[in-house]
Amino acid sequence: MICPRCKSELNDDMSFCPQCGLKIERCPHCHQPILPNAKFCSHCGERLYEDVPQGVGGFYQPLGDEDNLEEETVDFEDIPVSHKVNKKVIGIGVAILIALTGISYLYLYHGPALNLARDNSSHQIKVKQQSIGGTTSYATFTGNINLSGLVYQSEDKFYICDDQGHLVSMDKDLKNRQTILNESVQYVNVTKDMIYYANKDNYLCQSSLDGKDKKILINKAVYYVIVKDDKIYYQLDEDHEALYVYDIKTKKETKLNERQSFSLNILDDKIYFTSSDGIYSIGLDGKGEEKLLSGKYYNLIYQDGYLYCGKTDGSLMSYDIKNKETQTYDKNVQMFINISDHNLFYYTNDMNVMKYDLKTKKKTKIYSGYITGGQIIGDKLILMTGGSYSDNAYQVIMDFNGENQQRLFTDGQGDFI
Fold it and tell me: What is the value of pTM for the model shown?
């Protein structure tokens, strides 16, 4: 397969392009790579996106409100039957229906993609209201940015892109929802008085916190956008994916290097990033560039003197900057999702989301199923299932141990379950 962005040759099992970091979309039916905006899968022929009539709010209907539905009756005329009834066939059919009903019941109540709590007294499905606690560290924020940056935690609010990519704000209980940006966005950064992001064309934009005053700062495609200390760092697509910085006060754009730059980590004194041939560091002024490791890496995250990253050979590893030593945690990794204070989250080739505890060295499976990406906000993990922003895509939010799994949005308006 050829990468749609940089035209590099890719292996079919890759989730990200090793050259430019583009996320590779996959068919929700056969999980093979698909081209952007394709209507049918070139491998299995299935339709990828079904047409949704205008005005339809979504494709999920919460259960438990059947008592309010108006009952409708229809009279049918008897149709004469001239042949004999085969009682044996009918008996087999009834047995099959009973078996299927039992299987459906088990899946509904115990399915892996959506764990819903039951109220045993009424036998109606109820959903536990989630509440996001803790804080999102700078290392976790960097990992989110490397995988499109669809969530952000400020002092009193959480900003989350809904299933259509529109930015909404909520409080810590995911209540008091407001749609801030009614368009598809990514690389979300929020300061005290402004929101910075990339729009559907990947142009660098800013808006007020209420989303009313919007402006394009750079009308060129940018990636890996990180705002730090009145400056915006990013990769500029049209200039061979080199590293740039934009001064918010002076509105001046400065080029920092001549190298392809992905997975930016902006520290107080230097920048760590990946390129097509390894991991590099460079000063904030663009001086003193140094190669640290050779190879092909993605989703590089700095935390406490270590660089954590995925390698395109399927390894999840870290690099001790001071001692110049590497350590491998798993070799069956399709996607390195993110890092919390002492946990690594990653997606395996056999479609399991794993948590690796850096303190106890223990691996735990917390989710099973096909995903296309993930984000961390506070003490919660959010996984995207299905193709990004396609009709069959939705997000699942859960605790770090995999408990309290439930769907985050129920329709295109961003309603919480």
Answer: 0.72
